[in-house]
Amino acid sequence: MAETANAGMELDPKYDHYDFPTVSATKQPGHPGHTTKEQDAAVHQLRMTLEQEGYTKNLDTITLLRFLRARKFDVQLAKQMFTESEKWRAEFGGGVDNLARTFDYTEKPEVFKYYPQYYHKTDKDGRPVYVEQLGKVDLEALRKVTTDERMLQNLVTEYEKLADPRLPAASRKAGCLLETCCTIMDMKGVGLAKAGQVYGYLQRASGISQNYYPERLGKLYVINAPWGFSGVFAVVKRFLDPVTVAKIHVLGSGYKSELLAQVPKENLPKEFGGECECKGGCQLSDEGPWQDPQWARTPKRAQPVDNIPATESHTGEGVPTGTDRNPGMVQEQTGGHAAPAAQ
Q1: Any residues with CB less than 8 A from the CB of 239 and at least 6 apart, and which?
Q2: Which among 77, 220, 300, 343 is placed 20 to 30 Å from 233, CA to CA?
Q3: Are 208 and 171 in contact (CB under 8 A)?
Q4: DSSP H stretches of helix in the chain
Q5: What digits encode the pLDDT tens for the residues 92-136?
């Protein structure tokens, strides 16, 4: 499919330098290309307020709309969320933007033996599919091949890769803006002995995804959910926004027909009822539009700085410094320490 024009969304010439469609596939108020005048005004107000406090990065319209949607278009709450996110981005791993450029997860093949988590092709709506097999989690074995900190750095790096290049490439192929992904969380093998581990991962996932990567979850299919999981989920969902909860489908072992209604069989790994068998294994293939030259572009973080507009250089230093910074607007983060990279 051909790339579409940027019609339908008012672009800010200073910040909005997109090379992918900007009209959202989600035809609901608050999404790019489907905003009301009041919502457009909220974007302008949020951007102006952040500029006045010295922020210069990540102020593009699509990003600000995500933060506003996450806070029901309350500008002050969206501002608080944004500033806390920028503080975290500047501090985590020496700066998230630099981490995404330099992180090398050399132990990935070994780690995936005990905790498979990977992107693989797209669903019927064109969104990247993310697979996480919590039933295989073995923290004791994992800690023999990696550390908790490197696991977390990898998860954050994958969030960044979702934003660029995965979603832009998927959007180009779909011909509309895609901002979310479809997650498959396989619970096969999760029993009482692992219940605590699963609960911990889900709790930390809700923290990092909601606080720093809002509005990234499109659909979540929890498959092979064990007996009693609904009780655990009832606790976990207290930490989740109601909008997020509505996107979650908890299924037992008879999940295949519902999952295949969302993910084409040729894109779904064979072990989940699909037909895909990538050479070397689906979990290490990273197959998707982001690997296809027709749709893929060099991520901005990999481009020479001279090729990136100054307001989008993404250096990981978006928090204002010196007298421009208002420390009262930045709250200390107490969120989670790990998260599935799809949410």
Answers
A1: 203, 206, 207, 210
A2: 77
A3: no
A4: 37-52, 61-70, 75-91, 96-102, 108-114, 139-145, 148-161, 167-174, 192-212, 229-236, 242-245, 256-260
A5: 999 999 999 999 999 999 999 999 999 999 999 999 999 999 888
Q: Which tokens belong to 79?
A: 């501002």
* Whole-number Å distance between alpha carbons of 38 and 242: 23
What amino acid occupies position 102?
Answer: T
Q: pTM here?
A: 0.84
Written as six digits, the tokens of 75 are 């500008």
Q: Does residue 217 contact residue 342 with C-beta atoms inside 8 Å?
A: yes
Cβ atoms of residues 274 and 268 within 8 Å:
yes
Largest CA distance in the chain: 59
143's tokens: 């800690």
* Calpha distance 23→21 (Å, rounded): 6
